[in-house]
Model the fold of this input.
Amino acid sequence: MSASSTTGTAGTATGASRAEYCVIACAEAWRDDGEVLASPMGLIPSYGARLAKRTFSPDLLLTDGEALLVGLDGETEGWLPYRRHLTMVTGGRRHVMMGASQIDRFGNQNISCIGDWARPARQLLGVRGAPVNTLNNPVSYWIPRHSPRVFVERVDMVSGVGYDRAGAAGVTRFHRLPRVVSDLGVFDFAGPDHSMRLACVHPGVTVEQVRAATGFVLAVTGEVPYTREPTAEELRLIREVIDPKGLRDREVRA
Amino acid sequence: MTDKTMTPEEVVGQLRSGMTVGIGGWGSRRKPMALVRALLRSEITDLTVVSYGGPDVGVLAAAGRIRRLIAPFATLDSIPLEPHFRAARESGALTLTEYDEAMFMWGLHAAANRLPFLPVRAGLGSDVMRVNPELRTVTSPYADGEELVAVPALRLDAALVHLNRADRLGNAQYLGPDPYFDDLFCEAADAAYVSCEQLVETTELSKAGPPQSLLVSRHSVTGVVESPNGAHFTSCAPDYGRDEAFQKLYAATPWPEFSARFLSGGSEHAYQSAVRTWHEEQR
Done:
């Protein structure tokens, strides 16, 4: 099944919601990662990480959001204060999914400020750990509202380093951006020169819709598939175990 | 041995305008807020503040005391954007040296070890290099030849940190899950001032927690202040969590109004009373 000819009403065989496809797409980021720390920023990525650990990536490590490594039921299995967390980053045993206020076609990300850095129109968080993350461990991104204001031609303050700038600075050794997940689809950097490519769209979304919501020219190769369907067991885990209150539908509506 | 106990006013009496002051904790977690409030009651200004920023940065920025801030972020954690930091940046009121979190940590390590710099794989390729043109790189002298950023030592004139317990000599203990970087701040500073929830006899320290909870040792401490609830409204696990309701009030109230109601009483005691009164009014 492909999305290029559909009008947005494509069937969802399992009755999954848009938010649930997003959880699946985030979970897939950590497939085959082995024994590394899954560091999800945001609600849907954290559901995705937990789903991955409960199913196809059981060896993942998770934190309690503070200084402890915890199992799925909250049992403490390790100590991870910030100083050790930073070593996990530089040691490469971590795959983070960060947010982005802006992201460009090569995956340069901005969470620092909007406008001129010297006197920003809008001060945001600051670069935080995005520079060290992107040079040392795999970094994926989660964008809950795909829009041309987020997917921009040029970001105002490069916090997370994209492929073009990593190449120019000679820091590609441990640089890897596995995927970007938005409420519309999943993106990788398999386009020309490691540019962003539309990997799949969530059922109900068209390629045109994604293009219109993106502020740069997206690479699209051939027929664009849909995000895979969740299994019945995955849906049960999301709905009954991981997010019984349905908070996922507040982060992504569809 | 030297009894290093002091009042917050005596700590601030050791500080001068124009100094570089490191502030421990992280975001809105275990910030030495009582010492910061004492700073606000003084005339000291024109500071270079070095911090994993939270409301410490916010209140000092709102009061116009910061000339330059060295930080990777400023956040209230449960409220992502620190409102006064944001306002100060947007009005151009403070100069920012924006480092990555790891660069910042290695800058403290360099200072604590009396090294001029430490090499870090962070910053290259990002705009941290553009906005900090003074940063230099070094090339590994070994076969790999990797180019790394040489983060300069973040040497401090003074450090302010808050821990759970301390003795009169300056040995201080954290009882929560994360030490943050408070030991490094103390070791990177010419003078370090530790406030604590509770001042105890030295023999009590090893009863309260294992040896590795004795984070800060007296050789790196100049003064000790007993200041119960001294991290308020940031968290100080396990003694207390963040005062989320009060933090919301702080974030939503115009600074002159907040300052007039809570910070004009002339002492830490007056602040704590004003906070109690506010909480009683909310019931």
Summary: Chain B is about 35% helix and 20% strand. Residues 123-152 of chain B form one domain.
